[in-house]
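subagent[fold] <- orchestrator: predict structure for attached chain, return tokens only, no commentary.
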Amino acid sequence: MNDLLALTEVSPQQLNALLQLSTTMKQNPAEYANALTGKSIAMLFEKPSLRTRSSFAAGINRLGGHSIYLDANTVIGERETAADVGANLACWHDAIVARVFKQSTLHELANASDKPVINALSDTCHPCQAIADVLTLQELFGDLSQVQLTWIGDGNNVCHALINAAALVGMKLQIVTPKGYEANTEVLATAQGIASQTGAQITQTTSLDELLPSDAIYTDTWFSMGQQRDESQVMHDFAPYQVNCQLMQQTGAQYFMHCLPAQRGREVTAEVLDSDQAVVLKQAENRLFAQNAILMTLLTGDQQS
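subagent[fold] -> orchestrator:
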């Protein structure tokens, strides 16, 4: 791995190694306290962030490294191209963590930089989130090949990353979206190809009547940052797909997942989000350990300490 731009560029063996390293680093943090001593990581963000920015900064600090935050909107654009920014940052920093509006910006940064670039969210995928999510499910259930996860709502960037991750680890994933909001067909096709090798089962439907029994239900906001949609139309189309107590009971789901921030009363009811079944804070916590494993792998080339 030279960069982490999308999980489509990661093999099943590489993802399993990242999960193993995440677990090891979480269980033995003191062993990695100086792992990135002398390393500097640039955090280049076009979008607002709570979990991504905080977890990367805290994680880098715990590994003995240094991070610097840059508002990408003030440096990329008319002032400088993404390529020029990437080339310059590579002169001073050991890696670039970028949260961007377009996946193409990540490729511009990576092509111009001889240092690793990590996708901290783009319009097409969110690999760091998906790795943390799979880590969370592994902690909850153990054998991921026995997990049945249901994604309900928008076929968005988080959904795409989760599709890729499920295929790589051999998990069962059911995607349920309103008509017109399905996951990208190319993403699904690529994942299906990987699933044929790993034993994963990935299905997509728009029918709530086809809901399978699930171990966990995952949803996300109906309005992604930078997305232009008619609010009244979206509210109408998504209303039947709200995650509530009835849906949790109908599917037999033990846990509820969300990448946050969540809108109580929209995609999920407060009763579910604030219940003991919600593992959203465990997901958020695991962002740090998943991302630290990514940094260790890219910056040191070591899978273990």
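orchestrator: received. Logging for downstream: The two ends are 17 Å apart (CA to CA). Strands lie at 40-45, 66-71, 95-99, 117-119, 148-152, 172-176, 201-205, 216-219, 255-258.
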